[in-house]
Amino acid sequence: MPTNIGPILPLKDQILQCTLKDEQGLNDFQKLPDALGIEIPRVGITRFRLPLKFKHGPEIMHHDATASMYVHLSSGKTGINMSRLCGILQQEAESSTVDLNFMKVVLSRYRDELRDNDQDPLMKEAFLKLAFAYPLKQKSLKSNNWGWQYYPCEISAKQSDKGEASILITIKYEYSSTCPCSLSMAKQYERDFAEGKTTEGNGIGVAHGQRSGATLKIMLSPEGLKNHFFIPEIVELLRRAIPTETQSLVKRIDEQAFAIINGSNPMFVEHASKRLHQVLNNQPEISDWLVELEHWESLHSHNAAAVIFKGVAGGLRQDDLFGHQ
């Protein structure tokens, strides 16, 4: 703590009589001590936008991202130098691609370089969240075509005095779901029409289906952190659990193939939840997970929804659909 400040003055007097200067001789009000003794768990910046580099196999691509950055402000401190949060992130983004190690490096720098003085202890905690859309090439089902499938993602990371950084990855996945009940009744109607039991309609029954979505949150295990388990690997798990992913580019032969896949994988939101549970629970790179699912019904004006999680003690959970965790 600087020793040439004198007694702590009321806020108005601190502003008007600031004696602490920075390297350019400008008033450094933010470094003045605070007499209230109140700590702030998170203080920083949200909605900071910048392009970030990501590896896509052998290639490197730039994606627009939005960052939220925080540190823990100890009692006795007035504030932080917020521009350092932005500067550190930009410096690392210039020289590195975003991966799990990138998050750790940025957080370590926040805890070190957001201190007022080198003699101060490291910041108690640092937080970083990056939001972006991650594209992957998606091959068409039958034709020799491909398109870009975009996955809205968030990577949230926290580092503290307790040791290793914790990483939470959120991915949104869209898929098609054909209602099993509707499919069963459509086929029943077609048989009844063919057998002359009914003359209603034209003999063709169409099951109702809908675009659906799963928002997956995962906490990486030590093995996941070590193996750099990242978005492409997570998407592969989602595709394995629910193979009816929406398509980015189709020809007629692909559209027919999609109809066949949907017919082979009818599912309520309950089925989709259990499919994900089976795949995610058997993945050693994932220590905890939670999925929110929603089927945007074509039959009803309301949606079918579910929440399922691993059930780790003290881990990710959501008690209802209103966001309470």
Tally of extended strands? 8
Low-confidence stretches: 320-325
Helix content: 25-40%
Distance between the termini: 39 Å
CATH third-tier fold name of the largest domain: Urate Oxidase
Which term fits the overall shape? Answer: elongated
Question: Which superfamily, in CATH terms, is the homologous superfamily of the largest domain?
Answer: Urate Oxidase
Number of helices: 8
Largest sheet: 8 strands, antiparallel
Top CATH class of the largest domain: Alpha Beta
Question: What series of H and E elements makes up the topology?
Answer: HEEHHEEEHEHHHHEE
Q: What number is the mean pLDDT? A: 90
For the largest sheet, list the strands in their spatial order: 1-2-3-4-5-6-7-8
CATH architecture of the largest domain: Roll
What proportion of the residues form beta strands (DSSP E)?
25-35%
Rg measurement, Å = 26 Å
Structural class of the helices, strands and pairings? alpha+beta
Q: How many domains comprise the coordinates?
A: 2
